[in-house]
Design a protein that fits this description.
Blueprint (H helix, E strand, L loop, with lengths): L8 H9 L3 H35 L8 H8 L2
């Protein structure tokens, strides 16, 4: 797999292996925080879209029981 920087995935892994254990741990922490921030942004966008759809009358409010009945659970 070619990464955006032009490095292949295995090259990135090899580069990480050359880091000190402390730097590897820092990298993992940074990547995890970025993953969480990206997911948070995605959720915020989903919520905004759902609110807009609700306000436009494209979806209706339902209870969890109604939703569960609808999906057959």
């Amino acid at each position: 797999m070619l990464m955006a920087s032009g490095m292949r995935f295995d090259e990135v892994l090899d580069a990480v292996e050359r880091l000190s254990p402390d730097d590897q741990e820092s990298l993992v922490d940074i990547l995890e925080r970025r993953r969480i921030a990206r997911r948070r942004s995605e959720l915020a966008q989903d919520i905004q879209e759902a609110r807009q759809e609700f306000q436009a009358g494209q979806i209706q409010a339902r209870t969890s029981a109604e939703i569960m009945n609808e999906i057959g659970a």
